[in-house]
Design goal:
- Strands 1, 2, 3, 4 and 5 form a five-stranded mixed β-sheet that branches.
- A hairpin with a 2-residue loop joins strand 2 and strand 3.
- With about 190 residues, this protein is α+β, with helices and mostly antiparallel strands.
- Helix content is about 45%, strand content about 15%.
- The longest helix has 14 residues.
Length: about 190
């Protein structure tokens, strides 16, 4: 199991990519990096219920390890639905903005010196609401802090709902992240 409540929350929010609305997910990730434990413990279970998102057993353990540890109401945690089926995986495409735009250059300037970060990729998720940039990073200490920093940079450059996925250096990506990696462009790798 994941070592800290913050790491558990980061992993759960990774697994909820494209299951929770982008408008909500980036905010939850920002709260995690800012130490907003009470806000996360209160909001995350309610939003899972409001959006009728079911969780697997592993995801329920992660929710208990973070929101439960931070004081979420047990009745809310018990009301979370079990996962049914496998979520659909969206279509990703690499996009055409090579060389990277100023937003990605700013993200690169911040992450390339972070210990453990090994890669920066970009994909565009194509869906019924248009195209959404998805920035994928691999590795790094305190990935929730890297996520929030990159999100803030993207918001400063005009992205209203930044999608930043900081994946562990090893391990199996979710089907969503695997599709994003396959449909992405590699922009930087550490030497």
């Amino acid at each position: 199991m994941t070592a800290t409540p913050e790491a558990a929350c980061h992993e759960l929010l990774l697994r909820l990519a494209d299951r929770l609305p982008d408008e909500l997910l980036w905010r939850l990730r920002d709260w995690l990096a800012a130490g907003g434990r009470a806000a996360l413990a209160s909001t995350l279970p309610k939003e899972l219920l409001r959006n009728r998102i079911g969780l697997t057993d592993d995801e329920m353990e992660l929710l208990g390890a973070c929101a439960g540890a931070w004081g979420a109401a047990p009745r809310l945690l018990d009301a979370i639905l079990p996962a049914v089926g496998v979520p659909a995986v969206p279509v990703f495409e690499p996009g055409e903005d090579v060389p990277p735009d100023p937003a990605l250059l700013s993200v690169l300037a911040i992450v390339r010196d972070r210990p453990g970060v090994t890669e920066l990729r970009q994909a565009w998720r194509v869906g019924p609401h248009g195209r959404q940039r998805v920035v994928i990073l691999r590795g790094g200490d305190h990935p929730w802090e890297i996520t929030a920093t990159a999100q803030r940079i993207l918001r400063a450059h005009g992205d209203r709902t930044p999608c930043v996925e900081v994946l562990p250096p090893n391990g199996e990506p979710t089907p969503y992240h695997e599709a994003a990696i396959i449909g992405s462009t590699a922009l930087w790798r550490s030497t």
